[in-house]
Every structure is written in C-alpha cells, then in structure tokens.
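tool_call predict_complex ligand=zinc ion
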Amino acid sequence: MNFPVFSSRATVRPWFVALVLVLASVFPISLLFKEGPQYSVGAGGQVSGKQGEVVLVTIPVKDRPDRVKGQFLQRTLTFFPIREHTYAGLLGLDMQDRPGRYELTIDVVYPQRTERRSLTVLVMKEEYPEQRLTLPSNMVDLDKKTLARVQTESKAVHEAFAGFVPHPLWKGRFVEPVRGKISGRFGSRRIINGQPRKPHSGEDIAAPKGTPVVAMNDGMVRLTADHFFSGKGVIVDHGLGLFSMYFHLSSVDVEHGQVVKKGQVIGKVGSTGRATGPHLHWGVRLNGSRVDPYSLLELSVDAQS
Ligand SMILES: [Zn+2]
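tool_result ok
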C-alpha cells in the first residue's frame, strides 16, 4: 500500500524549550559512498532528548517518496510530508528507555529504490520525583478475581493501541484537556503503601468533579471503558501511533469509533477506579512509548488544506 498522501500544506514550528529538539538535517549513508543526493548534516548526525520526551525529526527528501519509515529500538515511526521536500516524524522516548545512544534508521522508499539514512539518538536521563501514596490494601494487593479482571482490561488497552489511523489526524497545537493543579507528575517513582510500584505513566490534573475534559486534538475514539485501576476512561487515536488517554472520569460523553475535534468535551472529571480524589489522569502514548503529555504542548504542526 502506498503511503497515504497528505495533501495539505503543513508547517512545523520548532520547539522552544529544552524539552524537544528539532532535527533539521540527518547524516545520510549515501554520503559515505560519495553518491546520491547531498543533504545537510546535523551536529554529528545526532538528535537527543530526555526520557519521556517527544522529539520532532524532520528530513529532507527528493521528489515524492512512496513512504518514509523509521525504526528505533522495536518501534516503527511513519514519517509524513509537511512541505515540499520535507518529511517529519514524531519520535517518542519512553520514560524508561535506558539513557544511552541508539540508532534511528530511516528508509526513504521511492518506486525504484530505497535510501537508508541513519542517525544517532542520545537518550538522556530525566530526574523523576518520588511520590508516596497510601491506598486501601484491596486496591493494591489484588485478589485472584480482581487480578484476572485487571489482566483482561490491560489486554483490551493493548489491543486498542495495536491498530491506528495511518495518517495524522491532529492539527496545530495540542491543548490541555483540563486546567488544574498537577497532583501526580509524569514519571513519578511511586511508593504505594511502602512498596515500590510502576512509575506513573501520565499527568494527574486535579479539578472538581464534573469539570469538562476535552480532547487534546482531533482524533477518533478508539476505546471507552470502565476499568478497575483507571475507572471510566477514553482513549483517542490521533493517527500514526499517537494516542491520548483520559482516565478516572465521572462520565464518558463519547462513543467508540466517534470522530472528535480538538477541544470537544469527551467526558467529565471524576474519581472512578483507583483514585484518591477527583482528577484527570492524562496519558500519551506514541509508537508504544509512554511520553509526557506536556511535551506535546510545545509542538505545533499546522496543516493547511
Ligand atoms: Zn495518574
């Protein structure tokens, strides 16, 4: 199948904070062989970012390739055209990717040939805070029946992530789904009832029960659920492996398969599931990586039709 044509003209503004780096150039392998098109070379052919960040990678291309695919660790990135001769891809660095250097290979596939580019991704350590929580023991040490329920629900979530719209649905800037005080930071090392547990994979935003929760950008509802841990929740597919999650809602106001617009109300803040008070758990997953939702707010992809 051909790469879906992104017919609109798009521009990408650079990230202005240290959260994100814009790569304006890559080190093409073809240069090593002194043939093929010439490209500008970035600083050592390297991009870098901290654990949990989204890195925008842009590459120059000749003509119109059939598709441009990247491979980073076990993750596949689909690049998309943003303007003439330029493709972009969003690279998610998982909160638990080990600091170090990794290779990102990018295949630019033309009808008659494929060009492989290679660049180094430096993953830097993020200092995550520690969060101590006290919860009822039956919410932490699960009985057999509850454990089976949690496993089934976890499978349903992973299945939701398995299929996604193969082109970008998001447009322009991403928005915060609700305003409020951050009550649980992304990446926090959690100590629950004195025991180390999984780190926190989203941002908790405290807000009164019933506060409207809006979609962070355009997308399609991939899952609505009422799960043991996450309570009533919505997962939105924004295309190309980018998903947003909204959990612990008091009500879900959208249906599976529904197309939603940026800023559209999808539910209300609540404390369903395992929650100590009304708040929104806002999570973002990008190509299988758990990334900090706030790192998306610095990004703008303005598509014009
Ligand atoms: Zn949370």
